[in-house]
Specification:
This protein is α/β, with parallel strands linked by helices. It has one domain: TIM Barrel (Alpha-Beta Barrel). Helices cover 42% and strands 14% of the residues. The protein contains 15 helices and 12 strands. Helix 3 packs parallel to helix 5 and helix 8 (168-177) packs antiparallel against helix 9 (188-211). The longest helix has 24 residues, at 188-211. The two termini are 22 Å apart. The model has no long low-confidence stretch (mean pLDDT 98). The active site is at 347 (nucleophile). Belongs to the glycosyl hydrolase 1 family.
Length: 444
Amino acid sequence: MTDSIQFSPDFTWGVATSAFQIEGASTADGKGPSIWDTFCRNPANIKDASNGDVACDHYHRYREDVGIMAGLGVDAYRFSMAWARVQPTGKGAWNEKGFDFYSRLLDALEEKGIAAHLTLYHWDLPQGLQDEGGWLSRDTAYRFADYAREVARRFGNRLASIATHNEPWCTANLGYGNAQFAPGVTDAKQAVQVSHHLLLSHGLAMQAMRAENPKAALGIVLNQWTSDPATDSAADRALAELEWARSVQWFMDPIFKGRYPELALRAHGANAPTVFDGDFDIIRQPLDFLGVNYYFRHYASAETPPRTAPAALGVTDMGWEIYPQGLTELLVKLNGEYTLPPIYITENGMAAPDSVEQGQVTDTIRIRYVQQHLAALQAAINQGVDVRGYFLWSLMDNFEWNSGYAKRFGIVYVDYATQQRIPKASALWYRDFVAAQHLQRRAA
């Protein structure tokens, strides 16, 4: 399926992870607790009653993991920094041992010629800040800017890019809306206010990093999807429009247009956020890139019970419909609605019920999934969308948040009892695919 696909010679091919999901070493070398450390202390919050104390032990095995990346031949690695590792309480003194770890990781990546793409915040707020109100407190946005400035000062010339946030929609709606994620709050009004403070913190961090004049490209990573009406009824079409407004436009409009979408504001009603004068001027900072994470579409049905998506291509182990053409539709729609910087697909992948048989993991379904989504990505590029790179989620199996270790997204299998890494069939396929793209690059 991908034999005929040829991306531009300078297209970036990468893999992605996040700190809490892989690092482990939860108290090592002065690291402070995060909200996810706290959330996991209640086993009822995690489906398999597990935690991130050890995870993939990447903190101690990072050289092995970088070696795996080098064996895949990827151009780039997207990862996040654990804020509480470098600043244990989220304010005050910096933890030099924490920064030393990330410096060693960058050394290892540089030795292998792998570009480093850093995300500052992938959901693991220092518990010290949560104790003072967390993202519901406006002050946390200013503490985040302090953190961003320090990271840009230290590492801004060693990183290819820095993203402020990963998926602020999840932080707000899953962390504060339905308690699925840390810190485990169920309050719709708080969720909306948190979303505003996350956007404010993004703008403040962008300003703080720009002042350091780093070589790294600066941007944000948003999880996005189209919303398709289940039928042509007015009710279903209205629901689809509202979903687009309160999920995609809610974060895109402030960043690119300096306002919230009216449809979503009306829907939030009394839960609409408190916005100070000048907030949108702060939020609307120029971006060097936009990261887009795509996994599924939304299917809007007003019926009771609601109609479900047809799932013609199957579902992932998360129960998510496999809908690759949604990536094309999403990118083309965004490109028509906004004046965009270059886009990177910063996450795309699937959970599968992988198992080791005779020392191998044959995840054919994942290979097909990636092939289908790369074809969809090529279709979007052919329609004029400026996409510069693709990061496969994930490099390796890891702690999948409230699902614990039961869901495997990796192209490298992790035996959590022994920490053995076993490249799956998808890893070998991706290695060969990237190698073929590099051949085309050299021939260009």
